[in-house]
Amino acid sequence: MRLRIGTRGSALALWQANFIADRLKGLSGLEIEIVRIRTSGDHMQTAAVAKPLAEYGAEAISKGIFIKELEDALLNGTVDLAVHSMKDVPTDTPAQLAFPAITQREDPRDCLISRQGRTLKTLPHGARVGTSSLRRQAQLRHRRPDLELAELRGNVDTRIKKLEAGEYDAIILAMAGVNRLGLAGKITQVLDEEIMLPAVGQGALGIETRADDAETSHWVAHLDHPETRACVTAERAVLRALQGGCQIPLGALAHVRGEALHLEAAVFSARGSEHVQSSDEGPVGEADAIGARLGAALIEAGADNILRLAGRTIGQGS
To answer: N or C end of the chain: which has fewer CB within 10 A?
Structure first.
């Protein structure tokens, strides 16, 4: 049997696709082909006139700009499975597709990389910090409103090169990507969840297949990690309750402790001056309900007002 894996063409995406390919080969001796597919998000990242992803509009973001073409390739039979970073996957996916596996999560936290070994606390007043994420920008402004936040585009290696070229004093990246590319030695500070809550699903890989492709789904299901699936399910349920996409200023992180799942989430205003934060806990088997309940609690605490000020209205999508 031969399986074709659809992936974006960045160094990180290819690492992820090859990681899954190697694990599938180890399970079954299957023949694997990697198929590179350029997505709308890739075009936006490398556009001649770069602008923040959020400026492309809520509808474009919510449709999954980094995975839409991969899903199209699945639906038309060009590939048999696609590997995604779960933080890029919208809460609503086509009914014809499924996720038989969410693999064991890498470190979900964010990290800071600086040119002079400075931490978030020791960066000088007015230091230029690069990040394109509204979630990261809001939490940085909440803790360090004196910093100059600048748009940062490109893949992980491109962003680090821009830092080293002196365009920024520091940048914020997901630890998972830095670790996977063997660049952990460049990390200046790990940003624990008390400092910065990560994006929903950050660090987890999802393997998507056609729902009616039982044979591919059978092999892929061997790679599923139930604990990671439960955590990602809970985090995505919060996002779904807030009608949000990957550019909503929401941070969320779930942990499994014994038989219980603990979930923390917060919504920030764009300037970081306002935020609501809450947590919930319950049996691992009720992950979706825990997330939905926490999302409702955040709305009750004022998350809808914060998002409305940011130009997003609960119930209209993001």
So the answer is: N
Q: Choosing from 88, 169, 280, 304, which is the catalytic residue?
A: 88
Residue 305 confidence class, pLDDT cut points 50, 70, 90: confident
92 shares its domain with 6: yes
Q: What is the pTM of this model?
A: 0.90
| Beta-carbon contacts of residue 295 (< 8 Å; ≥ 6 apart) | 237, 238, 239, 240, 241, 242, 265
Residue 88 known to be catalytic = yes
Q: Same structural domain for residues 11 and 87?
A: yes
Are 66 and 42 in contact by the 8 Å Cβ rule? The answer is yes
Q: Is residue 114 part of a domain?
A: yes
Please give the residue range of the domain that contains residue 174. 110-191
Q: How many CB atoms lie within 10 A of CB 87?
A: 24
SS3 35: strand
